[in-house]
């Protein structure tokens, strides 16, 4: 559920090895890059390097994003994927803004109460683990939908991922720990053992070779999207479903389509912000939150001041209360978009803000609307021609449903948990929902993923996104405010301690290293404070005066690469 970026030095030469002795890919991580030609930042050094190799071959930012995304499916199996879905936001050098929705979709046999027992009680283990938890994957459809904006042949873009799967790569201590931790789940929820499971414990320095995944990628290379949604791979997915009482069918796969949607574009002072529309909740929450603070004296308050944290927390609370009631798939539910982001509604909601004390979520519900006619990963790319791409993809939980498609070598998502299984019942991230996000056949579940691009003078200025479940939108919000209001360096904007509030549960979540004196004063104002190890893993690029700066989050192995 988290993402990473980094600049890396790798011990291989630009993913061309046909003449070399086969040996696993090894690497080192570099967190910061500055240069003038292009940059990639992602959750894994080898994926960032794959994207950089494409930029150096003459590809644009979309080409590099495709290569990076496919490489993440190999080297970052906890969240990188071809069995999940996500969103792409791009600003092209010709001025066009593009958003592509390749969010997973409920299978045709899905039903409103499929995770309730005979007593009407929710059985969330079914929506979070195993075959029934999976929505129809959208990642491959999204990649091919974006290909029209790329330059290079698809076979060139997928080859780094094939090489990484076929030849293997050296795993880190964190990667070994993850594979060991979920070993029993991989065995329990899959019909056949896989490359992720071995008799002994995984160790730092071991090589992970994924031959079955390499073969799946080759079918996609040779047959395009049909190499995934039809033919051998589709057969493997459906057969895996049948072995574990899953409901994804051949028709579900064959009929899945990515959707190019109208971008959310709004002004914030002298900047233009481009982000993803629904089913990304960020497409509604981010403009709401930015508008709520736009006329407040944040700069005067100062970074991590009690007044600034209090204001931003209450803005989070108000926005997330509305998320719970009003947001869902606009193809299935009439969401009052114009009202929620209108100046009049924002002003009305801010009347509930008390500058002296914490709000109480049980007393601050969703607004009145008149009738109106975490496992996730992020990558950011910018090229020398001015194309910018932000992509956030997900399996939902770490390693998704833990179900590995037999013979195909990839993990399926557990995105069905992002629906509202029952009104008022929280999902794995504590988010509650209602009828707007109820399960229905072929419906797309609400997401928190918020890939975002900020324009300054109509040119890309910031490219940003993060994993982290419901903390995604608040992390993007803070990253933007840290740069646009508090004038922090990009490194500080990404890595300084973050905080989060999502209305329910009524608690202010902060990272362990958050300033203690600030927390004492916030507690005195009435906040219930919960400390956590980390919030998100932001991947960010800043372009200013011809200089490109990329930062990989220090919370993980995130890596930035550029030239």
TrEMBL record:
GO molecular function: glutathione hydrolase activity; leukotriene C4 gamma-glutamyl transferase activity
Associated pathway: Sulfur metabolism; glutathione metabolism
Pfam families: G_glu_transpept
Binding site for L-glutamate: 103, 394-396, 418, 447-448, 469
Keywords: Acyltransferase, Glutathione biosynthesis, Hydrolase, Transferase, Zymogen
A GO biological-process term: glutathione biosynthetic process
EC number(s) recorded for this UniProt protein: 2.3.2.2, 3.4.19.13
Catalyzed reactions: glutathione + H2O = L-cysteinylglycine + L-glutamate; an S-substituted glutathione + H2O = an S-substituted L-cysteinylglycine + L-glutamate; an N-terminal (5-L-glutamyl)-[peptide] + an alpha-amino acid = 5-L-glutamyl amino acid + an N-terminal L-alpha-aminoacyl-[peptide]
Active-site feature positions: 376 (nucleophile)
Keyword Acyltransferase part of the UniProt annotation: yes
Protein modification: Cleaved by autocatalysis into a large and a small subunit.
InterPro entries: GGT_bact, GGT_CS, GGT_peptidase
Family membership: Belongs to the gamma-glutamyltransferase family.
Subunit structure: This enzyme consists of two polypeptide chains, which are synthesized in precursor form from a single polypeptide.
Protein's recorded name: Glutathione hydrolase proenzyme
């Amino acid at each position: 559920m988290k993402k990473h970026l980094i600049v890396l030095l790798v011990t291989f030469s630009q993913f061309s090895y046909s003449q070399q002795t086969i040996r696993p890919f090894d690497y080192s991580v570099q967190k910061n890059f500055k240069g003038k030609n292009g940059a990639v930042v992602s959750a894994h050094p080898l994926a960032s390097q794959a994207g950089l190799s494409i930029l150096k071959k003459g590809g644009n930012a979309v080409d590099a994003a495709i290569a990076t995304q496919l490489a993440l499916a190999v080297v970052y199996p906890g969240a990188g994927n071809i069995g999940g879905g996500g969103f792409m936001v791009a600003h092209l050098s010709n001025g066009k803004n593009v958003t592509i929705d390749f969010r997973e979709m409920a299978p045709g046999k899905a039903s409103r109460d499929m995770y309730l027992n005979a007593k009407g009680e929710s059985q969330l283990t079914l929506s979070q683990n195993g075959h029934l938890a999976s929505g129809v994957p959208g990642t491959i459809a999204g990649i091919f939908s974006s290909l029209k904006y790329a330059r290079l042949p698809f076979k060139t873009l997928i080859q780094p991922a094939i090489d990484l799967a076929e030849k293997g790569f050296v795993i880190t201590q964190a990667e070994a720990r993850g594979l060991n931790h979920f070993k029993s789940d991989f065995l329990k929820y899959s019909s056949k053992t896989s490359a992720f499971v071995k008799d002994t414990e995984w160790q730092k320095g071991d090589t992970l070779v994924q031959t079955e995944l390499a073969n799946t990628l080759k079918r996609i290379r040779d047959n395009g999207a049909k190499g995934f949604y039809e033919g051998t791979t589709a057969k493997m997915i459906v057969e895996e479903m049948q072995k574990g009482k899953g409901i994804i069918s051949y028709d579900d796969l064959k009929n899945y389509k990515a959707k190019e949607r109208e971008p959310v574009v709004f002004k914030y002072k002298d900047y233009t912000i481009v982000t993803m529309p629904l089913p990304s909740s960020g497409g509604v929450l981010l403009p709401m939150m930015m508008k709520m603070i736009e006329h407040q004296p944040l700069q005067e308050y100062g970074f991590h001041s009690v007044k600034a944290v209090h204001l931003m927390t209450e803005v989070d609370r108000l926005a997330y209360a509305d998320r719970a009631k009003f947001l869902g798939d606009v193809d299935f539910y009439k969401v009052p978009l114009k009202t929620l982001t209108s100046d009049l509604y924002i002003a009305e909601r801010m009347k509930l803000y008390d500058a002296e004390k914490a709000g109480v979520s049980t007393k601050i519900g969703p607004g009145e609307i008149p009738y109106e006619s975490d496992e996730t990963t992020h990558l950011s790319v910018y090229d020398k021609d001015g194309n910018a791409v932000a992509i956030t993809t997900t399996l939902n939980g770490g390693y998704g449903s833990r179900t590995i498609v037999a013979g195909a070598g990839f993990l399926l998502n557990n995105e069905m948990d992002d629906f509202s299984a029952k009104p008022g019942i929280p999902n794995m991230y504590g988010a509650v929902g209602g009828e707007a996000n109820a399960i229905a056949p072929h419906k797309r579940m609400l997401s928190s993923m918020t890939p975002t691009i900020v324009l300054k003078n109509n040119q890309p200025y910031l490219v940003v996104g993060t994993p982290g479940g419901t903390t995604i939108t608040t992390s993007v919000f803070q990253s933007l405010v840290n740069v646009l209001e508090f004038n922090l360096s990009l490194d500080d904007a990404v890595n300084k301690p973050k905080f989060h509030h999502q209305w329910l549960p009524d608690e202010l979540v902060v990272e362990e290293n958050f300033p203690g004196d600030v927390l004492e004063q916030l507690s005195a104002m009435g906040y219930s404070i919960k400390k956590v190890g980390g919030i998100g893993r932001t991947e960010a690029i800043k372009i200013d005066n011809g200089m490109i700066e990329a930062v990989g989050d220090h919370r993980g192995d995130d890596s930035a690469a550029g030239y």
